[in-house]
Structure formats: structure tokens, C-alpha cells
Amino acid sequence: MSNTFKYRLWSPLGGLAADLTAGHRALDADADADADAVDGFRLQIYRNVWLAPPRGINWRDAAWLSFGLSAHSSDLSSAHPGGLLVEVAELTFPLAHFRPEAAALAMDGWVRMEFDLPDRGFRAAFDGGIGAYRFHWGGYSDPFSDES
């Protein structure tokens, strides 16, 4: 069963918006890597936690979805020792109200809603002084650095 999480942040620029529809299922630890994935493709996020992104997704959106899931991967791995696959059916957004970072915020919200996990401090805020959004990633200062 899939559920949808709607991320919204309103601002003087209009705001950010992304709707993430996803489901999850336990994996057989001995299953073939491609057998459990949508269209035979999935990304390993952490040990036994996998992400199947939607078909045709932009690489930036896939990277940010992966990051949003990775913040919770240790908890998910512990709770699902046989493996867990998160299957994203859709990531939709109005182009005027989207930045790739919103995919991470939507995934974070979906994971917390679906698994009742704690807030990891992912936030976006409009900074009127610079006229742009600032993103905060909890304990991650640079999400795509090897040191984070």
C-alpha cells in the first residue's frame, strides 16, 4: 500500500512543494538484488535499506530522495533486519515551487509519517535578507560530502 506525504513551505517567492507517494515492503535477505525492485532497479542506501526511485526521475531528485531516506536508514535497518525496500511511485511538484532539495524534505516527512521515526532536523526557510531559501540538514553540514 502506498501513502502520500505533501511537503509545503510558503514564502514570498511562492514557496516549495513536493508530493511523494511511496510504499515499502520487507525483503528476503537471500533474494536476488533485481527481483525485488521496480523495473529491476534499486539503490542501496544503507546495509539492508534500499530505494526504488520512480521511472524517469532526474538524477538530482534521486540523489536528494536518497539523502532524505539515508537520515533514517540506521533506524530502518535495525527495525527490518531482513531488508527493507522503499518504492517511490511518484514524486510530483509544480516546477515554479520546486528545488531538488525539496525531494529530501518530502522523503524525510514520508519516512517519519510511515514509520513514526524522530525528527532529524531537516528544514527549509525563506531568508528575506538574501531573497532565497536556506536548507538545514540536522547533523549533516554538507549532505554529499564523504565526511558527513
Helix content percent band: 10-25%
Provide the succession of SSEs. Answer: EEEEHHEHEE
Number of helices: 3
> Outline, from the CA principal axes?
globular
Account of the protein in words:
The mean pLDDT is 91. This protein is globular. It has a five-stranded mixed beta sheet. It is an alpha+beta fold. The protein has helices at residues 59-70, 73-79, 101-115; strands spanning 3-9, 16-26, 43-46, 49-52, 84-92, 122-127, 132-137. β1 and β2 form a beta hairpin. It contains three helices and seven strands, in the order ββββααβαββ. α1 (59-70) runs parallel beside α3. Helix content is 23%, strand content 32%.
Compact description:
By secondary structure, the chain is α+β, with helices and mostly antiparallel strands.
What labels would you give this structure?
148 residues, alpha+beta, 7 strands, globular
Topology record:
Elements: E1 3-9, E2 16-26, E3 43-46, E4 49-52, H1 59-70, H2 73-79, E5 84-92, H3 101-115, E6 122-127, E7 132-137
Parallel strand pairs: 4-5
Antiparallel strand pairs: 1-2, 2-5, 3-4, 6-7
Helix pairs in contact: 1-3
